[in-house]
Amino acid sequence: MSTELEELSSDEDSGRMKFDEIVQLLGDFGTYQKRVYFLLCLASMSCGIQIMVSVFNMGHIDHRCAIPGLENDSYIVANEEHAKLINETIPWDSNRGDNGGYSQCYVWSANGTLGDRSLTRCQRWVYDESQFRTTVISKFDLVCENEMARSHARMIMMGGLLLGAIGTGVVADIVGRKLALMGMVALHAASSIGVAWADTLVIYVILRFLTGISISGLFLAIFVLGMELVGPSKRMVVGIVVEVFWAAGVLILGVIAYFIREWEILQMVVSFPILLFFTYC
User: Which stretches are transmembrane (predicted)?
Assistant: First the structure.
């Protein structure tokens, strides 16, 4: 092998042009390469998890207007007196579903007689907690006139994905793949963990935007490093397997979300393991 390497080094075209040949001589996919590649694939799982976690964090949650002045109002009817208050306060919306339901956006005004009342917009809402205990929607009341904010939040995160895809390759070419990888790990960890503590919608959207950048940046760095790590004969397999780990992360997220129905806790559980990737330094 040493003789072959010497021949390659003496060739005027050696260097970058002979990189593939050198990798083949060292081994296309040896034990060291497999170990490093596996660690990269674990980080790929986190990318899949973080891009799909919003499916649960912003999952549909049924709701209706809260009864004005009743602080302990709940979506589930507690007793006959509670049902009477709901009927007197919340108008029936026949357009909701197949059988109709209580209005999600309007209540009867407190002024006027029973036969002479007007509709006013809700100021508070109560949410059905049978499927999700809490979501971003219930925390920030992204319903009725604020419903459009849901699409905006998702769209802005996709903007982060686009920016990360465009900019990461340029940055990696300047500072190197590993440094770019660790920088994206830092951004990925900070933004993903920070989302769980977002106390306003603006902060939540900003952090999801940064998470989007980190997802694209981290995955691109992982993919390129994986390709550069192995020989030409293994690159197709390597390119496929890293995607399998991405999909596995999405499947694992589904299992975790089945047991954890509070969005903040779910976000923390799937985000804190990202800190382990700092050991790659």
Answer: 36-56, 155-175, 201-225, 237-259
Find the helix or strand (DSSP H, E) in which 248 lies. helix 235-259
Instruction: Count other Cβ atoms within 10 Å, centred on residue 135.
Output: 23
- In this predicted structure, the answer to whether residue 194 has a pLDDT above a threshold of 50 is yes
Query: If residue 221 lies in a helix (H) or strand (E), which one and from where to where?
Result: helix 201-229
Q: What does the mean pLDDT of the chain come to?
A: 85
Task: Please answer whether residues 139 and 195 qualify as being in contact, where contact means their C-beta atoms are separated by less than 8 angstroms.
Answer: no
- List Cβ neighbours of 212 (8 Å cut-off, separation of 6 or more): 51, 156, 157, 158, 159, 160, 161, 162, 163, 164
172's enclosing H/E stretch is helix 148-175
Which of 130, 157, 176 is the C-terminal boundary of a domain?
A: 130
The DSSP output letter for 53 is T
92 plus 196 within the same structural domain: no
Cα gap 40→234, rounded to integer Å: 16
- What is the Cα–Cα distance from 106 to 104, expressed in whole angstroms? 6
Question: Do 122 and 245 share a structural domain?
Answer: no
> Final residue of a domain: which of 104, 130, 156?
130
3-class DSSP assignment, residue 255:
helix
pLDDT in tens, 199-250: 999 999 999 999 999 999 999 999 988 888 887 778 888 889 999 999 999 9
Residue 116 CB coordination number (10 Å)? 8
Regarding predicted confidence, which is higher, 73 or 275? 275
Strands 63-65 and 106-108: what pairing?
unpaired
Q: Do β-strands 101-102 and 92-93 pair in parallel, antiparallel, or remain unpaired?
A: antiparallel
Res. 116 pLDDT band, cuts 50 70 90: low
260 close to 57: Cβ distance less than 8 angstroms: no
Confidence band of 24 (pLDDT split at 50, 70, 90): low
Q: Residue 101: helix, strand or coil by DSSP?
A: strand
- pLDDT at residue 182 greater than cutoff 70: yes
